[in-house]
Amino acid sequence: MAADVLSIEHFLLPGTLIVVDGRTANARFLRANFQRDWLYYYSEDFDQHFFELCERPLGISNKRQIEFCLGDSFFERLALFES
What we know:
Blueprint: H1 5-8, E1 17-21, H2 24-33, E2 38-43, E3 48-53, H3 60-69, H4 72-82
Antiparallel strand pairs: 1-3, 2-3
């Protein structure tokens, strides 16, 4: 799917995962221009770029959604990211 992720970045929920398959120039552009707290990982083996929005939950509903979908590992990454 192709989309202008920068134009909708402020509407994305914490825990959002974006995968860029190939397209290294696009991934570098996103990494340089994202304004929120994104974790970034690049897999050379698969030529894939991963961006995870790592911010505190927006409220109780978002927290429950993260707990259900991502589990405690998200909160562990969040703690590492914030320190």
